[in-house]
């Protein structure tokens, strides 16, 4: 895939027919990921670990479950959020 197509992908060819029109009232469709390294290296950003900000590891999909294991068990930088059988976390646990 060419670099220009990565920067501005043709969503009509990637998504099911009519998807953008059917969902335009629900919210925007983001074409690209934010440049995470650039955002986190900005002077106005203070890393959570450095600042002592409490963190919870609450995986929603894909590699986030592995991230939870690393953050909670290996690095000991976060507390785990464990869902109930129905997939929810109640407010008292948070």
UniProtKB/TrEMBL annotation:
Residue stretches spanning the membrane: none
GO MF term list: UDP-glucosyltransferase activity
Entry-linked SUPFAM superfamilies: UDP-Glycosyltransferase/glycogen phosphorylase
Annotated keywords: Glycosyltransferase, Transferase
Family annotation (InterPro entries): UDP-glycosyltransf_plant, UDP_glucos_trans
A UniProt-annotated Pfam family: UDPGT
Entry annotated with the keyword Acyltransferase: no
Family in the record: Belongs to the UDP-glycosyltransferase family.
PANTHER family: GLYCOSYLTRANSFERASE (PTHR48048:SF30)
UniProt protein name: UDP-glucuronosyl/UDP-glucosyltransferase
Annotated organism of origin: Parasponia andersonii
């Amino acid at each position: 895939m060419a670099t220009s197509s990565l920067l501005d992908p043709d969503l009509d060819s990637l998504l099911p027919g009519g998807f953008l029109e059917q969902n335009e009232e629900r919210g925007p469709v983001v074409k690209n990921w934010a440049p995470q390294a650039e955002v986190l290296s900005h002077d106005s950003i203070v890393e959570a670990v450095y600042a002592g900000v409490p963190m919870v590891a609450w995986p929603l999909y894909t590699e986030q479950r592995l991230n939870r294991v690393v953050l909670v068990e290996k690095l000991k930088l976060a507390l785990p959020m464990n869902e109930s059988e129905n997939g929810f976390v109640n407010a008292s646990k948070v």
